[in-house]
Structures are given as C-alpha cells and as structure tokens.
Known about the structure:
A: 7 helices, B: mainly alpha, 93% helix
Amino acid sequence: xxxxxxxxxxxxxxxxxxxxxxxxxxxxxxxxxxxxxxxxxxxxxxxxxxxxxxxxxxxxxxxxxxxxxxxxxxxxxxxxxxxxxxxxxxxxxxxxxxxxxxxxxxxxxxxxxxxxxxxxxxxxxxxxxxxxxxxxxxxxxxxxxxxxxxxxxxxxxxxxxxxxxxxxxxxxxxxxxxxxxxxxxxxxxxxxxxxxxxxxxxxxxxxxxxxxxxxxxxxxxxxxxxxxxxxxxxxxxxxxxx
Amino acid sequence: xxxxxxxxxxxxxxxxxxxxxxxxxxxxxxxxxxxxxxxxxxxxxxxxxxxxxxxxxxxxxxxxxxxxxxxxxxxxxxxxxxxxxxxxxxxxxxxxxxxxxxxxxxxxxxxxxxxxxxxxxxxxxxxxxxxxxxxxxxxxxxxxxxxxxxxxxxxxxxxxxxxxxxxxxxxxxx
Lengths: 242, 174
C-alpha cells in the first residue's frame, strides 16, 4: 500500500489543466470494451426463440425492467431502460474486473484495479445520475414544477431538500466506491500474506478464496443497488406526485 | 490514489483530476450509445416482436378455440337432427311395412277366396256336366233296354223323347 497512481496531466495554458489517472482510464476503457463485447456477441443472430446468451441478455433486460417498474410506470420509465441496462452491466463488470489481477503494481504504481474503486469514477457516475434526473424532471414537467418540488411539502424544507440532493449524490457514489475499494484493499492484504511464504500461502489461500467469492457477490449486489437507487432518484424527479 | 488523492487535489485546487471525470462520462456515454445501437436496440426489437407474436398467437388460438366450439355445437345439432331424421325414417318405414303387410294379406285373402269360389263354381259345372252326361247315358241305355224288351220297332226319336220325359218326371218327383 501507499503506492502512487500513474498520473498524466494535460496542461491548457498555465491556469487550466486536466489530470488523468491512466490506470482508471485504462480500466474504464477495458470494462467498457468487455461490456460491449458481451452485449454485442450475445445479441448477434437474434432469434424469436432465444438460445444461449440471448436468454441471458433478455434476462438482464427483464431484470432492469422490473427495477424500473417497481419505481415508476413503464410509460415514464421506459426511456431509462437503456440507461439502466448499461449502468448495471458496466458497474458489475467494473466491480469484478479488479478481482483477477487485484492490485498489479508497475513501478510502484497501481495499474490494475476496478475503475469503481476510484472515488472520482463513482462520484462522477452518481453526479451524472443527479444531473440526468434533474434534466428529465425539468424536461417533463417544466422549470416551475421542478423548482416547486424543493419547497414541498413546506417551504422551510428548502435547505433540507438542497442537502438531500447532495447527500443522495454523495451516498450513491461513496457506497459503491467504499464497497469495492475496501474489497480490493482487503484482497491486496490477503494476497500480500499469501505471497509472504509457505505458511503465509497456506494461511492466506482459504481467506483469499472466500474473499474473492464474497467480492463477486458484493460486485453484483452493488451494481444492482446503484441501478435501483438511480431509478429511485429518477422516479422522484420524474413522477408528478412527488 | 483514492480518497487521499481526491482530497489532496481538492485541497490544493491546482491539479484537478477532471481528466478522470471527463473520461468516465465520455466512456460511459460512448458505451451507452454503442450498446443502444448494436445490442439493446436489436434485442428490444426482437423482444417486442416476440411479444407481438405471442399476443397474436394467443389471439389466433382464442379464435380457433371459438371456431372449433362453434363447429362442435353445429356438429352436435346436425347429429341430433340426423338422429331425429333417422328415427322418423325408421318409424315411417315401419308404418309402411305394416301397411304393406296388411295390403298383401288382404290381397292374398281375396285371392284365396276368389280361387275357392272359382273352384267351387267349376266343381258345380263339372257336377252338372257329369249329371247331364249320366242322364244322357241313362236315356240311351233305357232306350236300348226298352227296345230290347219290347222288341218292337219304334222310332228311336219318339222313344227317346218319351224316356227323357219319364226321367225328367222321375227327377222332379225325386
């Protein structure tokens, strides 16, 4: 632990600069490519009588549809279907991708990790959801109704409502980050023990396997929770009676 | 990395890791667009298609069921009709047969009566003929016997007339 991250800073003049964590970017791209390949390959040769991977993809679609339908009616929520499927698959793959090579260091820089073990990524996703929910809230019911929701049920709730927006965003991002990051830290520690010698290996292999199994479980659960909460927040903004 | 990194950057305010934010948003956006075009779109299409197929099949099945039940009803009615008709036909045939039997029997009876009558008539005629013939014979025999007895030549015609008369008288007397 205590190693650095491979950073690359893009400078635009003296004032403005963009810093990239190359590991994060790499793992994001890798996750996206894996998700795309899974989805692309399994939706080739589509049939009315589904077989093999098509069944799996349709199950995911129906699963996300179920999540959406438990929060809002399908007429409103149908437009978030694509977002939901992409979110759940991308986050699940991102959560799991850190496990096989959990913590590969090159020149004391962490290269292989889950992109969701990076707080920037999770908070960005969470902020994206908040922005999207506000956007759809305004788009569907108008600016007046949107601002009105901050003063309901009573106007002194306004500060709390503002706090709620930030709290929602923060908890959504931090929950995912915390689960995955903690999982990888512990996995790294166990791997460290297992790599320390014969006794360490014998002692570390059982907890290691158990923890990887648990991490897989956590990875799927967190993807589900993130998607579920996304739909909850979206429905809060989109539905009229809230 | 992680929290300390974030906090550090947020604290210093100079180096802002906006690159990661940008990368996340862009990569996620591109992924979603690509998936929508290449995976979710076609998959949703095929699922909608299947839904339509299923609903149309259900409708068709419902239609077929209705049709078949209507046909069944029709067949039942037809069968009932046919049965009734058969019953009627059998009934009428029986009646017809009864009638015919009656007719035949009557005809037979009439015929028998007629035959009997004609036989009786014939017998009567034959009897009369036989009696006539016997009479004839008796006359001629009597003439012969008388002529022999008398030995007297009388004209046969006179004799014959005489005898006939006698016999006729005898017949009447009897």
